Structure formats: C-alpha cells, structure tokens
Amino acid sequence: MADRVDAAATALGYIKTRMEKARRRFGAPPEHVELVAVSKTFGADAIAPFLKAGQRVFGENRVQEAKEKWPALRERYRDLELHLIGPLQTNKAREAVALFDVIETVDRDKLAAMLAEEMSRARRRLPCFVQVNIGGEEQKAGIPTNEAVAFVERCRTVHGLDIVGLMCIPPDGQPAGPYFALLAQLGKEASVASLSMGMSGDFETAIAMGATHVRVGSALFGKR
Ligand SMILES: *Cc1c(COP(=O)(O)O)cnc(C)c1O
C-alpha cells in the first residue's frame, strides 16, 4: 500500500506542477485551478491511494458506479468532494443528489426542474455547472451554444439552481483551444465564475483559456 500511495502522490505532484506552470505561463486568472481526479472505471482499491496522498476532489460519470464505490470511501474521508461529470437521466436525479456534491452536467429544463425538486426534498442545494455542447455534435450531451446563456438564466430564475459554471467536452481530433475560448466567452456572458474544461490531453490549453476546473483521468490513474 505504501508503494501505491507514493505512486499516487508522484502522479498528483506531476499533474499539479504542470497545472501550475500553465497557470503561471499564461498569467491568467484564476489563482487556483481545481484538479478533479476522474476515477471512472477504477475501483476503490485504486482510488484509496489517491485519497491517502491527499486528493479530495473526484469525478465520476455514472450514478450506478459511484453508488457502488463512494459511500464506503466517504465514511473514511468526510471532506471529499464528488463531481458528476457524465450525462444524467431524470429518473436518477434523486440518487445523484444523494451521492454527489457538485453536478457538472445540467443541460435541459426537464433535468434542471427535477434536480431542483430533489435538492429541495433532500435539503441539499448543490452547486451545478451547465454542460454546453461546444462543438455542436449530435451525439454529445449539452445545451447548444446559442441557447447556453438563456438556459443558465432559466436555471437560476425559473428552477432556482445554484449555477456556478459551464462545462464542456470539445470534439475529438481537433485543436481544443478555440472551443475552450468559446466556453470562456459564454461564461462571461452568462456571469458564471467557474469553467470546467480540459482533460488529460489538453488541460494545459484549458488553463491558458481560463479553466477553473480540469478533469483529469488517465494521466493520474492510467489507461482505462
Ligand atoms: C473520462 C472523462 C474525463 C477524463 O478523461 P481523461 O482523458 O482520462 O483525462 C474528463 N471528463 C469527462 C466528462 C469524462 O467522461
């Protein structure tokens, strides 16, 4: 176990150093960029060394999988912060509100309404991000770019959600920079403080464009 904790600490240190270098090089705000460690497909045995090494913010993309892994880990680490970064069906909203601390994938009115209802029922008002379909890809989740600002406004005023930021996954196989820049622009227009963008392959570019949260999986945990 000690070896695995050392390895986790080394992986975390390496990513955080690269994050800090990118932040300094581009001199962009924010002062601090949050590392969301994406642990999907990895079991509690692989996650535990990262918790022991001090990491507290994690991302999962499936409600069912999170339910199998995280309640037991949370018993031991009360201060951890779990982000839902995958698509959410309305019939899983109740479980999602119980399991997660931040919902990054609000992308339609029906879901926003259901989340609001479940949050008020559970008396848990979670910070949320609106996911934007930044590349206009048919198969991808997210609100279309031209509806994003109005949707953020509706989430706040109609549904009463606490929208803190925007989140996106740019199209594969293209430079991500222009998509991150577009998300940053939409974030300004929607008056949100946070931007969740950048993964293992492009988190430094995302930081250059103003990311406040990067979601890094394989660069920390290895290949899935
Ligand atoms: C899997 C996943 C990530 C992490 O991807 P890596 O390339 O492994 O860093 C980030 N964001 C979302 C939404 C994901 O599903």
From TrEMBL:
Its cofactor is pyridoxal 5'-phosphate. Residues 15-223 form the Alanine racemase N-terminal domain. The modification N6-(pyridoxal phosphate)lysine is found at K40. It holds the Pfam family Ala_racemase_N. Keywords: Pyridoxal phosphate. Belongs to the pyridoxal phosphate-binding protein YggS/PROSC family. Pyridoxal 5'-phosphate (PLP)-binding protein, which is involved in PLP homeostasis. This is Pyridoxal phosphate homeostasis protein.
